[in-house]
């Protein structure tokens, strides 16, 4: 399964394709495509960038931390942000290839985070923000 399929959230409703709507992956236009997807001409750049540890902590507080007692307290693991740039020259849903394909660009920012626990192993993860643009090609 691709990252695109894992990260997409299927939405309910009638698909009109005779398949389970939970298998459909919505795109930015609200159109639903049927996996599997075939991606060709994929390029990826990935690099670390140093950031302010204090500002990353403030970002965790703003978006991740819940003031309720007992809720996980997420903190940046390091002052590094990992940036990825992906380009897909051609992204096709095999079921709808006759209608065209999509060119897609993605920009991903990932911050390694940790939630320390006194009684158990700490939990590790990534705070991830993704932005993408697509162009429908016929």
- Beta-strand percentage? over 45%
Largest sheet: 5 strands, antiparallel
> Average pLDDT, to the nearest integer?
77
- N/C terminus separation: 26 Å
Low-confidence stretches: 1-19
What's the count of strands? 7
In DSSP terms, counting alpha (H) and pi (I) runs of 4 or more, how many helices?
Answer: 2
Label the structural class. mainly beta
Helix fraction by DSSP (H/I, runs of at least 4): 10-25%
**Could you state the order of secondary-structure elements as H and E?**
HEEEHEEEE
Shape: elongated
| Integer-rounded radius of gyration | 19 Å
Summary?
The chain is mainly beta and 138 residues long. It has helices at residues 3-7, 53-63, and strands at 25-26, 32-33, 37-50, 75-76, 80-93, 101-115, 123-137.
Relevant terms:
138 residues; 5-stranded antiparallel β-sheet; 2 helices; 46% strand; two-stranded antiparallel ribbon; 12% helix; single chain
């Amino acid at each position: 399964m691709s990252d695109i399929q894992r990260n997409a959230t299927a939405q309910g409703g009638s698909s009109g394709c005779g398949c389970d709507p939970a298998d459909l992956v919505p795109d930015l236009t609200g159109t639903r495509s049927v996996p599997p997807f075939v991606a060709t001409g994929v390029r990826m750049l990935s690099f670390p960038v140093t950031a302010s540890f204090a500002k990353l902590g403030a970002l965790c507080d703003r978006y991740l931390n819940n003031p309720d007692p007992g809720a996980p307290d997420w903190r940046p693991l390091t002052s590094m942000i990992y940036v990825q740039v992906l380009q897909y020259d051609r992204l096709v849903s095999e079921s709808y290839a006759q209608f065209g394909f999509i060119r897609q660009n993605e920009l991903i920012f990932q911050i390694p985070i940790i939630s320390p626990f006194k009684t158990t192993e700490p939990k590790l993860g990534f705070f991830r923000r993704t932005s993408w643009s697509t162009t429908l090609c016929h």
